[in-house]
Specification:
The structure is a homodimer of 301-residue chains. By secondary structure, the first copy, chain A, is of the alpha/beta class. Chain A contains 10 helices and 11 strands.
Chain lengths: 301, 301
């Protein structure tokens, strides 16, 4: 069994981006980070993104509206960032406080600045094998982990457990693309799937993104499979000072011994998400400089 | 074995739409049909669409640019139709002559008028379970055939053979949606799939859209499966006056006896495509009247 080290791979990507940004003469890439309220998890995620941006040389512009902001005010903030030609990427940290409509907010972000890849236009482009948009960060992080671990999906059967908009469906679409490294046969299973284990056992590559701690046990995995664990849950653990430990969707202790390669939690897919956000931001900057406003750049409709 | 009669089901939908349009006071729905050049198949398809529109009471506006039209001129034509508030739906008949960039043309159509459902924004909405756009006509025709034949996909394993942008991927995404009638477990196979028959034999519902005449033989189908045949090919046949017959992707003679339900070719999926185009046009008209220009209608970005 080989452990896929997400921290090491993410660090390599960050180093590559740092070198790329260092070579930029003129305005550096700029990522607007919008965090509404003080949700502790969001505070920690946005801080990590800010730090990684700084490490690469990306300008992080922190925007911290109060939890009382209205939908209209937040839309207006997005409009301002859309119009600001010095902003390359816009990230609105999820989840938004209750009362705000995430779908409308995410759909308002200019697709050419949607470095989180959540706009339906960008998801549609992924489905159409069109590289002119942005793929969502966690799914492209999974693809990058596989590519950099020497796993070519061509002709292999990828089983995705979970059909979420953030992970399950986009990663299935990426694995299906007619592209080097992809070209997989793909099955998407979910909570309503009959005979789930019979399907997951067929996976050459199993991507677990169902959000249930330690759901995938050894009997659900074909010996020799590659196992990618996207889930992160807190599991009560009296032996820890915090009273909990982080666990993935995979029961690591039983599955790891039979897997060919497997990602740990933490330290697997998690670190990749931030590095993919940075890669999208650098890409957005490059595209923006290549087609400045007023040029004949064909932006999204 | 039960034959799924696409002609009968499509006729029922046309009758429903006719009744709906008859009740419209004021401006009737309007569908712009753009056909470039005189490709015989395109002439016949557009004629069928025009006739069905007329039958329903939809105004069909035929636009017939010469085969020599340039990309820029065709884009300008699309822009004119986008701006025309009396046009509800725009269909640009595929395939376009060589030299014209279909993707750019389709992507230029206002997503709120994209009744063919080919714009990446509309495909992205399908992937996000968002009903505010338009699903592509052939995939939604497949879903409608299943629904009206009493096939509920919940908990069933749908295997889609083919990953085309027009059929395979969108139909897989529709079958996956969290919606009454859908909620399937979905596998997408294609020309690069290993052990194809082993996968197709697991299908409770097999959707063949690979574009190879009579490719699916009885040994690839589980007895009792529902078989939907999206393919249409011309197969040489000396016994016919025309010298050919139409064939689907399924070897009907051997598969029909073991299937629970099956669509014939022709007369299965084919007639549904036109009726779904009409349904989308009537829907676009209803939405346009509900949110006239200048109102706060949130159109696509």
């Amino acid at each position: 069994m080989e452990l896929i080290d997400g921290n090491r791979i993410a660090a390599a990507i960050v180093a590559e981006l740092k070198a790329e940004v260092a070579a930029v003469t003129g305005r550096k890439p700029c990522l607007a980070l919008v965090r509404v309220g003080e949700d502790p998890a969001s505070v920690s995620y946005v801080k990590k993104k800010e730090q990684t941006a700084a490490e690469i040389g990306i300008e992080g512009r922190l925007i911290l509206p109060p939890v009382t902001i209205t939908q209209a005010e937040l839309l207006a903030e997005v409009d301002r960032l859309n119009a600001d030609e010095n902003v390359d990427g816009i990230l609105v940290q999820s989840p938004l406080p209750a009362g705000l409509d995430e779908r409308e907010i995410f759909g308002r972000i200019d697709p050419t600045k949607d470095v989180d890849g959540l706009h339906p236009l960008n998801l549609g482009k992924v489905a159409q094998d069109d590289d002119s948009g942005f793929a969502a960060c966690t799914p492209s992080g999974v693809m990058e982990l596989l590519a950099r671990s020497g796993v070519d999906l061509r002709g292999r059967h990828v089983v995705v457990l979970g059909r979420s908009l953030l992970v399950g469906k986009p990663v299935a679409l990426l694995a299906l693309q007619k592209k080097a490294g992809a070209n997989a046969t793909v099955t998407i299973c979910h909570s309503g799937t009959a005979n789930l284990a019979a399907l997951t056992r067929q996976a050459d590559v199993l991507i677990a993104a169902i959000g249930r701690a330690e759901f995938v046990t050894a009997d659900m995995v074909k010996p020799g499979a590659v196992v990618i664990d996207v889930g992160v849950s807190r599991v009560p653990d009296a032996t820890r000072k915090s009273g909990y430990r982080l666990s993935g969707d995979v029961h690591f202790a039983s599955v790891a011994p039979i897997a060919a390669k497997i990602t740990p939690v933490p330290g697997g897919v998690g670190p990749m998400t931030v590095s993919m956000l940075m890669r999208n931001t650098v890409l957005a900057h490059r595209r923006r400089l290549a087609s400045p406003p007023g040029s004949s750049r064909k932006s999204a409709p």
